[in-house]
Amino acid sequence: MDNNQxxxxxxxxxxxxxxxxxxxDKIDLQFDLDEQETIVTSAMKIRRNRDVAxxxxxxxxxxxxxxxxxVVANDIVLCTRDYEIGKNFSSGNDFxxxxxxxxxFTLEVKNRLKPHKNTALEGLYKSGGQGEYKxxxxxxxxxxxxxxxxxTCFPDRPDVMTxxxxxxxxxxxxxxxxLSNGNLIExxxxxxxxxxxxxxxxxxxxxxxxxxxxxxLVAGDLALIEDHFITCSGxxxxxxxxxxxxxxxxxxxxxxxxxxxxKWDEERFGREYDLDLYQIVAVNDFNMGAMENKGLNVxxxxxxxxxxxxxxxxxxxxxxxxxxHEYFHNWTGNRITLKNWFQLSLKxxxxxxxxxxxxxxxxxxxxxxxxxVKKLRTLQFPEDSGPMAHPVRPESxxxxxxxxxxxxxxxxxxxxxxxxxxxxxxxxxxxxxxYFERFDxxxxxxxxxxxxxxxxxxxxxSQFRLWYSQSGTPTVTxxxxxxxxxxxxxxxxxxxxxxxxxxxxxxxxxxxxxxxLISPNGNEIKENxxxxxxxxxxxxxxxxxxxxxxxxKNVEQSTLPSLFRGFSAPVKIETDFTPQELAFLMANDTxxxxxxxxxx
Length: 600
Description:
alpha+beta
């Protein structure tokens, strides 16, 4: 078989998605952490999914680099011939397989890991430390997207939502801090035969179901910064930030950013935090900026630590934004999660939109919007026109980690923002409230989100769905014609998307254009009876065809349109404005983004 055939078979397609054959109602994890090897025991309550499986359907779990010690099913110890460990060459994944299982049963799998040798930084690994076993380092996990299979055998997919509990044991002197998801249930010393306790334990329980990619564990010698937050209903939430001891004095900004995010999410989206404890851990060896594990966020240190002597204004702003982003995931990503990884933008695009709005409300909305659009134009637009071009909701992938892209995050945020523009602030909030009410505790899709927005607003978004399935950046061309006799300004708008490897024929998109007219004396014209007027005084045009003409009567000659106010759609814009007209808009346009954009 040649390489092209191998890659073809490894490709995963959205159209091939099928629900899981078995549900895991509960998993109790035990970690016996040690320098040389860690023993993991997982005890699961398993139930067949009757909708897709029958008594002849085997149980197949994902696993990777797992050294199994024992398997126990319904209290019966299985021999190695009773189960199978192998590699699926069509998917490239390892698997654990039981050929025949009852409809409901318990399964215990015990296996060993070597975290100090895990250089992939996925699953359980050691951060920092010295020597062969990284002595003095910190045990950490990173399970998104498919890292949990490196910890134990499990259906490593986001639509299997499970109640997790976790008990951690470790050397008390080397690893005094033992953390996992949820609320701390119990902790204490483990008695020793010699009378002196060298080991201790901590038991954690998460009352909310979650997919395994949100599981987290941290164990090490870390400094603690504690604060509290009183929620809108009067509950007192304990806030913990853990860092290396020498960095304890650099966490105040991160803590204040967290409290601001919690308050803002209550006021703007009605979202109150749901656990009794919220924890952040900062480690140096982390292959992402941060990770939103339920109740236990793990960060790269650069997005937590800040000292006024060395950090820039941008550092402080980034910390505030990233802290907020991971906190906002508690509802948009954790409480409501993904049916499959093709829906990644459902949580990331939506949460980027939320963190952008947070930064806009706390700081300068215009400066934030300019910064976001510059990033989009500089990084995402080239992605849309290059070999990595893909829809916001991809149709296929070979390696999931390659799809944490600007298109999924930044363009995904712009898609949410367009829905916000089309619906308006009040209807968008109504749609978000319905989304949280309808899908709390479920794994859903981008289609579910858009349908909810339609149901809440009664606005047809059927054509708008193309923004999720069609790749590429539309180019909108603007041409103006002024009739002196009737004093009519006609604006011709046309859109085009170039064919690419994803679609040879591109359909017209639903493009919302925030809009106003600026008179020759520099004043904004407030009344245009044939347009939908928004509360902020600007207007909204909906370009849905390949080309459309919009006419405005009784306007003076040299009246200029202010188009795509606040950059209301992620498109390239070609206008017929002269340099003199752009200078006029730069000086007179009341939309601060467009004033800046004209200056460019």
